[in-house]
């Protein structure tokens, strides 16, 4: 019962910062004494701060305002990319801190060596948290591959991984959440607040994946394997993909394909090659613009199927696609208008990710933090009995 009530109280403070204990009690229906006791525990665990007396609004005694604590437990986000490892810290108010990117080509490397690098990056993030004087409450890890409901990376073709237990490898005393990078990018996009609760986010780094968000929640499918839009066929006679099929979106319109079509050499980190492509596009280079238009058309073809199936009002271009949004949006929208059955009555918006390349690592931190904020009593017991 206390676990349930703690979650109710914290949810109310998160929803309406500045409420007093009495106002939280009124909003939740809990007894004032119960709320006061629970708030004391949340304050002691640094999940909630007391802001001082509220402004006077009548003759009664002024209550003490309550607000989420920016110095409370932070979510530590990690993204294992093909050519980098990124980390960041996310505080209980949603603030992002200490975003770091460690370049390095992880293709073909032994998984243990990559995870050793990840562990070092995590240690560095812990040092950042210690310097800020804040605790780390949990770890979220974004991986470019199939991640099942138990957090096992079943397949990450662009890393060459199969059946890797990332959480066990990282170990430690903190809870570890592992998920597909596109799913966690969608979590980050939700937190960024573009005012949409239903969308498909398609994220492109080396590979292409999608996060499906319906009614404000990421939908992972029965086994956790949803969102593999990169392996939707857009040309049955196309070239062979790393998955073994032919004509996959990732193979035909992923960043490597766009760069090759534009005559830009693919190199690590991918960000450098994309920067050169953006420069060429901005300068009006015909070959670069033709490559982007072709990729946008194929991307729109794949997304039209998703929109017809899910009836979402928006698609969000993330990762490398976010940087190319000015040149991809028009051909994507044209395909959506042409192929989505309901386009005449409800046209689909084509948006750029608010977080761009940071979406997955920020979303990983958000996911780790959300596990605490939705079940604060478990965190309080963990830190008070340690």
What does this structure look like?
This protein is an alpha/beta fold. The chain contains 14 helices and 15 strands. The strands form four sheets. The chain has a five-stranded mixed sheet with strand order 5-4-3-6-10. The protein has a five-stranded mixed sheet with strand order 13-12-11-14-15, sandwiched between helices. A hairpin with a 2-residue loop joins strand 12 and strand 13. Helix 6 packs across helix 13 and helix 8 runs antiparallel to helix 10. The longest helix has 25 residues.
Report, as a whole number of angstroms, the end-to-end distance: 22 Å
H/I helix tally: 14
Can you identify the CATH class of the largest domain? Alpha Beta
| Low-confidence region ranges | none
The CATH homologous superfamily of the largest domain corresponds to: ATPase, nucleotide binding domain
Give the overall average pLDDT: 93
List keywords for this structure.
about 375 residues, alpha/beta, Nucleotidyltransferase, domain 5, five-stranded mixed sheet, about 45% helix, 14 helices, globular, Arc Repressor Mutant, subunit A, 3 domains, 15 strands
Question: How does the SSE layout of this entry go?
Answer:
Blueprint: H1 2-15, H2 21-28, H3 32-44, E1 48-53, E2 64-68, E3 74-80, E4 84-90, E5 96-103, H4 111-132, E6 136-143, E7 146-147, E8 153-156, E9 161-164, H5 166-170, E10 176-180, H6 181-192, E11 199-204, E12 208-214, E13 217-219, H7 249-253, H8 255-262, H9 270-282, H10 286-310, E14 314-319, H11 320-323, H12 325-339, E15 349-352, H13 359-373, H14 376-385
Parallel strand pairs: 3-6, 6-10, 11-14, 14-15
Antiparallel strand pairs: 1-2, 3-4, 4-5, 7-8, 8-9, 11-12, 12-13
Helix pairs in contact: 1-2, 1-3, 2-3, 6-13, 8-10, 10-12
């Amino acid at each position: 019962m206390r676990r349930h009530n703690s979650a109710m109280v914290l949810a109310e403070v998160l929803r309406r910062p500045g409420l007093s204990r009495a106002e939280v009690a009124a909003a939740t229906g809990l007894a004032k004494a119960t709320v006061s006791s629970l708030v004391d525990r949340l304050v002691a665990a640094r999940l909630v701060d007391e802001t001082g007396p509220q402004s006077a609004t009548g003759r009664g005694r002024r209550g003490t305002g309550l607000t989420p604590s920016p110095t409370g437990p932070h979510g530590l986000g990690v993204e294992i990319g093909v050519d980098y490892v990124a980390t960041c810290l996310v505080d209980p108010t949603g603030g992002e801190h200490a975003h770091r990117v460690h370049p390095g080509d992880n293709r073909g490397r032994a998984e243990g060596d990559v995870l050793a690098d990840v562990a070092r990056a995590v240690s560095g993030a812990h040092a950042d948290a210690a310097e800020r004087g804040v605790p780390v409450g949990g770890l979220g890890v974004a991986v470019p591959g199939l991640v099942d409901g138990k957090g096992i990376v079943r397949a990450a073709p662009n890393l060459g991984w199969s059946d890797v237990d990332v959480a066990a490898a990282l170990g430690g005393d903190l809870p570890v959440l592992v998920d597909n990078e596109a799913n966690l990018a969608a979590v980050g996009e939700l937190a960024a607040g573009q005012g949409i609760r239903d969308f498909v986010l398609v994220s492109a780094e080396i590979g292409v994946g999608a996060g499906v968000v319906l009614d404000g929640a990421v939908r992972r499918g029965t086994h956790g394997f949803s969102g593999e839009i990169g392996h939707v066929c857009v040309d049955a006679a196309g070239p062979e993909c790393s998955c073994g099929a032919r004509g996959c979106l990732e193979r035909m319109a992923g960043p490597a394909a766009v760069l090759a079509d534009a005559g830009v050499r693919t190199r690590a980190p991918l960000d450098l090659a994309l920067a050169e492509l953006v420069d060429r596009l901005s300068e009006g280079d015909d070959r670069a613009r033709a490559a982007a238009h072709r990729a946008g058309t194929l991307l729109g073809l794949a997304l039209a199927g998703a929109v017809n199936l899910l009836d979402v009002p928006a698609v969000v271009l993330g990762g490398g696609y976010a940087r190319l949004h000015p040149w991809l949006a028009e051909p994507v929208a044209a395909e959506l208008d042409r192929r989505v059955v309901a386009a005449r009555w409800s046209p689909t918006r084509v948006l750029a990710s608010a977080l761009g390349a940071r979406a997955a690592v920020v979303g990983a931190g958000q996911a780790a933090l959300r596990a605490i904020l939705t079940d604060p009593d478990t965190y309080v017991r963990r830190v008070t009995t340690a």
